[in-house]
Amino acid sequence: MSRISVDKLMKHALENKYAVGYFESWNLESTLAVVRAAENMKSPVMIGVCGTYIGEPERKYKESLSVYQAMLAQIAEEASVPVALLLNESDDEAMVLKAAESGFDMVMFAPVFASDAIPLQELTAIQKRIAEAAHKNGVAVEGEVGELPLFNSATGEMHEGEDTDPEVCYNFVKETGIDTVAVAVGNCHLKEDGMVKINYDALKILSEKIDIPLVLHGGTSIAREDLTKAASMGVAKVNFGTGMKRAVLNVMKQYLAENDVDKMDPNDVLGRGAQKDIMVKEQEAVIQYVEETIKAMNGENKAF
Ligand SMILES: [Zn+2]
Questions:
Q1: CA of 80 to the centre of ligand 1 (A)
Q2: pLDDT, tens digit, 9 for 90 and up, residues 146-185
Q3: CATH class in words for 6-296
Q4: Residue 1: pLDDT above 70?
Q5: Ligand 1 centre from 239 Cα, in Å?
Q6: Where is Zn(2+) 1 bound in this sequence (predicted)?
Q7: Can you give the pLDDT at residue 113?
Q8: What's the 145 CA to ligand 1 centre distance in angstroms?
Q9: 217 among the known binding-site residues?
């Protein structure tokens, strides 16, 4: 039994000056790899899926949230380190409420392009509703104040964000009753170069003013040394996704360049799980990425 409540996990992280990684997976192999890496590092970890992707209207084959929840829960159950389950960033209130009833440990409602999408007053009301419902089931809620810029790596375009205003954040937390809050202090969604400039003055002001754990999204955009520093300044969780996927794409590209799959037994390429299996390569890429990231966030040997 390795499930842990978000409350306990965040407290432990703040007390021990590390940040817990939320590593967003997309299938069985990537989820297993995240937990394997956390076990190797003896670190607590948060696993989960992206609600906006699961609910994507253009998703070709509809998938049920319950299937993902069952998979995540069983993997957490069998882990040797503390694991919590997050439904990350769903823009669908009904899905978030369902996740809060069906066994996630934390849920997050987040409209895409938040600051254009929903006025603050309305967002406050939605988050308050979600927090009330989730708390009845002992489920934590993550909210977001401000908005991360969003980089489109396919087109190179940048959607401007909005830095978190400490006063607005303080009031939002108080009015909604959320348990953790994602802040925008220079971090950027979907940007892969690890080169954003974190505004530490802004982060310091927020960590002093806000008395719930702070979260940084867009972990891929943040340099390793900045992750270390942020973890020592009241950031209790950092979210990663894009960087893991890039690492997997790179090994797959390399695999197909180095191996003539036409001359291979398809069972060796897919399903046997031995060294030549392309899904093993996928897992190894994720494991390496997650291990390095956990180290950067000072999470090594923090399992409890
Ligand atoms: Zn995010």
A1: 27
A2: 999 999 988 989 998 999 999 999 999 999 999 999 999 9
A3: alpha beta
A4: no
A5: 6
A6: 189, 217
A7: 73
A8: 12
A9: yes
Whole-number Å distance, alpha carbon 90 to ligand 1 midpoint, is: 10
How many angstroms does the Cα of residue 254 sit away from the middle of ligand 1?
28
For the chain, give the DSSP string. Answer: --B--HHHHHHHHHHTT--EEEEE--SHHHHHHHHHHHHHHT--EEEEEEHHHHT-TT-SS---HHHHHHHHHHHHHT-SS-EEEEEEEES-HHHHHHHHHTT-SEEEE--TTHHHHS-HHHHHHHHHHHHHHHHHTT-EEEEEESB--EE-TTT--EE--BPPPHHHHHHHHHHH--SEEEE-SS--BT--SS-----HHHHHHHHHH--S-EEE--GGGS-HHHHHHHHTTTEEEEEE-HHHHHHHHHHHHHHHHH--GGGS-HHHHTTS-STT-HHHHHHHHHHHHHHHHHHHTT-TT---
Ligand 1 centre distance from Cα of residue 261 (Å): 36
Backbone phi, psi, residue 109, to 5°: -95, 130
Give the C-alpha separation, 137 to 122, whole Å.
24
Residue 94's identity, in one-letter code, is A
The domain segmentation of the chain, as residue ranges, is: 6-296
